Amino acid sequence: MTALLPRRGLAQILALIVILAVDRVVSPQFFDLRLQDGRLFGSLIDVLNRGTPVALLSLGMVLVIATRGIDLSVGAVMAICGAIAASLADSHSLPVVLAAALGAGLVCGLWNGFLVAVLGMQPIVATLILMVAGRGIAQLITEGRIVTFSSPDLVWLGNGAILGVPVPIEIALGMLILTGAVVRGSALGLLIEATGGNARASELAGVGTRAMILAVYVWCGVCAALAGVIAAADIMGADANNAGLWLELDAILAVVIGGTSLFGGRFSLVLAVLGALIIQTMNTGILLSGYPPEFNLLVKAVVVLAVLLLQSPKLSGFAGIMARLRRTKP
Amino acid sequence: MKGLPPVLITAIVLVAGFALCALQFPNIASTRVVGNLLTDNAFLGIVATGMTFVIISGGIDLSVGSVIGFTTVFVALAIERWGVPPLVAFVAILALSAAFGAAMGAIIHVFDLPPFIVTLAGMFLARGASFLLSTESVPITAPVYSTVSDFALRMPGGGRLTAIAIIMLAIVIGGVLLLRLTRFGANVYALGGGRATASLMGVAVGKMTVKIYMLSSLLAGIAGIVFSFYTSAGYSLSAVGVELDSIAAVVIGGTLLTGGQGSVIGTFLGVLIQGMIQTYINFDGTLSSWWTKIATGVLLFAFIALQQGLVALARRPAAKRAGAVS
C-alpha cells in the first residue's frame, strides 16, 4: 500500500524509455553530461529542468483530478505568482518574496476550493473564472509591462545549482517527496481517492469530503505558485501574458498519461510526474530532431486521444481481458 | 418559459450597464457605436450561438477558437497561394470543419469520454494543423474581401450595419428558431436534461451528439470566415482564447452549465455585455484592456453564483417533501 510506484507504472516507464531511445537516435549526444562551473549540463538535465513547471503543476493537478475535479486556473495562478515574485524581488529578501508568492497561490487555491466545495460549482466552471480573470489580475500587478529583476537570490532559484544539480529539479523532487510523504504516509491519500470514487458514499462513511476538496485545490494553488516563481526566476522576469500559458493543459495531459482517470479515484503522484517528463522528453526530442516546434501540438493531440481511448470505459472489456491474462500468467 | 428569468436578468444588466456608460460618455448612445460593437463581436456571436447548443446539451466545446484560427489560415492560403476561388474555399472549409466536429461528437459518444477532454485534443489538433499550414500572417487581397468590407447598411444616426454584423444577426435568429421551433432543438434540451432519460424517450442520443458538435464546429468555421473578413488576413494565432469568451457569453446569458436550460437570445445579450465592457474601456482611455478580463471574470462569477442559488432554491421544496415522506 505504501509503495509509491505501483505495478501499473510499467507502461509509462516503457513509453519514457522508448522516447528516450528515439531522442538518442535523433541526437547522438543526448545522454552526454558535463560539469561546468559546478553545474551539470546536457540534454537530460535540460529535459528535467524544463519539465519542472509542468511536473510541479501535475503534482497538484493529480490530487485535484483524484477527487473528480479539475483545475483550469493553474496557468493563470502561475502568471499571478510569477508577477508578484518578480515585482517584489529587488526590494525584499527571498523569504518575503517566496512567502508572498506562495501565499497568493494559497489564496487562489482557497478561492477555487471554496467555489467547488462550499458553493458546489462544477470544477471546470469554477476554475474557469480564475482562468479568465487571473491573467487580468497578473497584468494589473505588472501594470502591463514585462517586469524584470536582478535579485541574485531569486535568480539562483531558477538557475543555480546544489551539488551540480539545478535548483528547480531539486525543488520539484523535494515537493514530490513532501507530497508523497503527506498523502501516502497517512490515510489522506486514501480519503482523497474515496472522495473521488464516490463523494456521497464517502461523506456517509464519515470522510470530510469538503475539507478534502478544499485541501487539494489549495495544494494545487501552492504548487502552481511555486511553478510560477521558478518560471519567473528562470527568465529573470515576469510576462503576465505568456507565463504558464496553456500549461494547465500540459498538466492535465501529464496526469492523464500517468494513468489517473479523469473520473476520479485512484491516483499516482510518481506516475503524474513521470507523465510530465514524458511530455518534456517529447518536446525536447521534436526540437532536437529539427522539426518545427509547431509539431508539438499535433503530437500532443494524438497522444491525448490515444491515452483517452485506452482509458475509455467502453474499452474496459479489453483492459479486463488483459488484466486477467496477466493474473493467470505467473 | 423556465429559461426566462435568467435571460431577463441578463437583459437588465445590459440595459443598466449601457445606461451607466451612456451617462458617463453620452457619445456611447449612438448607432455608430452600436454598429461597431456588432461588427467587432460578429465572430464571437456566431461561435457563442453554436456553444449555446453544446452547453444546453450538457457538453462543452473547447476547440472553437482553434477552428477559427485554422479557418482563417486555410482560407487565406487557399485564396492567395493555391488560387482557389473564394466561394469554393469557403465551401471546402465549412465541409472540413463540420466533419471535424462530427468526428469529435462521434468519439465522445462511441467511447463515452468527457467532452471536455476530447474537444481539448481537438483544440490541440486544429491549432497544430494551422501552425503547420503557416506560422505567418497571410494577408488576403481578393476583391471579394474589399467588396464585403465596404458593404454596409446605413442606420439612422450615421451608424453602419456591416455585412459581417448582418451575417451574425442572421445566424443568431436562425439559432433561436432552430432551438425553439424544431425537433432538433427539443432534443438538445432533452439531452441536457439527462442522456439516459432522453434515450428512453426515443431520442437518438448518438446521432444528436454528432450533430450538435458538428453544428458547433460548422458555426466556428463560419466565424472563422467572418474573422478573416474582419481582419483581411489569415493568422494561425488568431482567436486564441475565444472558447473562453464564448463560454462566458453563454453563461452570462443565463444558460445552465449543467445543461438542460438556456437560450440563444441570452447568449446574444451576453456577447453584447462583453462588447459593452470593451467599448467602455475604449472610451475611458485610461483603463487598460486587461480590465475586460477581470470584469468578465467577475460577471461570470456573479451569474454562476446566481444560477447556483436559483437551482438550490428550486430543489429545496422537493427535498423537504422527500424528507417528510421518508
UniProtKB/TrEMBL annotation, chain A:
<feature type="transmembrane region" description="Helical">
    <location>
        <begin position="72"/>
        <end position="89"/>
    </location>
</feature>
<feature type="transmembrane region" description="Helical">
    <location>
        <begin position="297"/>
        <end position="321"/>
    </location>
</feature>
<feature type="transmembrane region" description="Helical">
    <location>
        <begin position="213"/>
        <end position="233"/>
    </location>
</feature>
<feature type="transmembrane region" description="Helical">
    <location>
        <begin position="48"/>
        <end position="65"/>
    </location>
</feature>
<dbReference type="InterPro" id="IPR001851">
    <property type="entry name" value="ABC_transp_permease"/>
</dbReference>
<dbReference type="GO" id="GO:0022857">
    <property type="term" value="F:transmembrane transporter activity"/>
</dbReference>
<feature type="transmembrane region" description="Helical">
    <location>
        <begin position="245"/>
        <end position="263"/>
    </location>
</feature>
<keyword id="KW-1003">Cell membrane</keyword>
<feature type="transmembrane region" description="Helical">
    <location>
        <begin position="270"/>
        <end position="291"/>
    </location>
</feature>
<keyword id="KW-0812">Transmembrane</keyword>
<feature type="transmembrane region" description="Helical">
    <location>
        <begin position="109"/>
        <end position="134"/>
    </location>
</feature>
<keyword id="KW-0472">Membrane</keyword>
<protein>
    <submittedName>
        <fullName>ABC transporter permease</fullName>
    </submittedName>
</protein>
<dbReference type="Pfam" id="PF02653">
    <property type="entry name" value="BPD_transp_2"/>
</dbReference>
<dbReference type="GO" id="GO:0005886">
    <property type="term" value="C:plasma membrane"/>
</dbReference>
<keyword id="KW-1133">Transmembrane helix</keyword>
TrEMBL record, chain B:
<feature type="transmembrane region" description="Helical">
    <location>
        <begin position="87"/>
        <end position="110"/>
    </location>
</feature>
<dbReference type="GO" id="GO:0005886">
    <property type="term" value="C:plasma membrane"/>
</dbReference>
<protein>
    <submittedName>
        <fullName>Sugar ABC transporter permease YjfF</fullName>
    </submittedName>
</protein>
<feature type="transmembrane region" description="Helical">
    <location>
        <begin position="161"/>
        <end position="182"/>
    </location>
</feature>
<feature type="transmembrane region" description="Helical">
    <location>
        <begin position="37"/>
        <end position="56"/>
    </location>
</feature>
<feature type="transmembrane region" description="Helical">
    <location>
        <begin position="188"/>
        <end position="205"/>
    </location>
</feature>
<keyword id="KW-1003">Cell membrane</keyword>
<feature type="transmembrane region" description="Helical">
    <location>
        <begin position="294"/>
        <end position="314"/>
    </location>
</feature>
<feature type="transmembrane region" description="Helical">
    <location>
        <begin position="62"/>
        <end position="80"/>
    </location>
</feature>
<feature type="transmembrane region" description="Helical">
    <location>
        <begin position="6"/>
        <end position="25"/>
    </location>
</feature>
<keyword id="KW-1133">Transmembrane helix</keyword>
<dbReference type="InterPro" id="IPR001851">
    <property type="entry name" value="ABC_transp_permease"/>
</dbReference>
<keyword id="KW-0812">Transmembrane</keyword>
<dbReference type="Pfam" id="PF02653">
    <property type="entry name" value="BPD_transp_2"/>
</dbReference>
<dbReference type="GO" id="GO:0022857">
    <property type="term" value="F:transmembrane transporter activity"/>
</dbReference>
<keyword id="KW-0472">Membrane</keyword>
